[in-house]
Amino acid sequence: MSPWWARIGLVLCLLWLAGCAQPPPREAANPNTWSGRLALQVQDDAAQSFHANFQLSGTPEQGALLLTTPLGTSVARLRWAAGMARLEQGGQERTSTSLDALLHELTGSSLPIAALFDWLQGQATPTAGWQVDMSAAAQGRITAQRWQPLPQTTLRIVLTP
Fold first, then answer.
1. What DSSP letter does each residue of the chain carry, written as one string?
2. Residue 151: which of 46, 39, 38 has the closest Cα?
3. Is-contact 54 35, C-beta < 8 A?
């Protein structure tokens, strides 16, 4: 066999082996990261409605929440860690020792952040004053309502696959 045919044979063998190779496994998505759309309605004297795209990551103890418009413009960024929370909104930054206080300032209502992380993981954790509907969680839809204490609040989440 001539060297030319040997080279062609070697190239064909390498191509055949490359065709059998499997692509490297995809890295698993971070299980503590969610994104989608949320709507929050607060029924008080000045009824408020809040809609945004969101990216949430972390845990109730340390995490970040980014809210954006449908076009991707940042509305607010909230970051927290043990004993400290920071809200960036409209070019201003506010810090607090209370994540709940900054969430209330941002949304006009108190939100159960620890329960929210559980709900996003498919666990219908009971929370005082809140009733969560997880019936469509498999389709990425969660609804929660707070009746007490006032103001009545409805939170709707639609996760992006």
1. --HHHHHHHHHHHHHHHHHHPPPPPPPPPPTTEEEEEEEEEEESTT-EEEEEEEEEEE-SSSEEEEEE-TT--EEEEEEEETTEEEEEETTEEEEES-HHHHHHHHHSS---HHHHHHHHTT----BTTEEEE-TTGGGTEEEEEE-SSSSEEEEEEEE--
2. 46
3. yes
Q: How many CA atoms lie within 13 A of 51 on its CB side?
A: 3
Quote the pLDDT of residue 28: 46
Task: Give 16-57 pLDDT, tens digit per residue.
Answer: 444 555 554 444 456 799 999 999 999 887 778 889 999 999
Cα distances from 129 to residues 23, 78, 111, in angstroms, run 49, 24, 11
All domains of the chain in start order, with CATH:
33-159 (2.50.20.10)
Quick check: 109 and 146 in contact, CB under 8 A?
yes
Token digits of residue 129: 């004053």
In this prediction, residues 100-104 reach a mean pLDDT of: 93
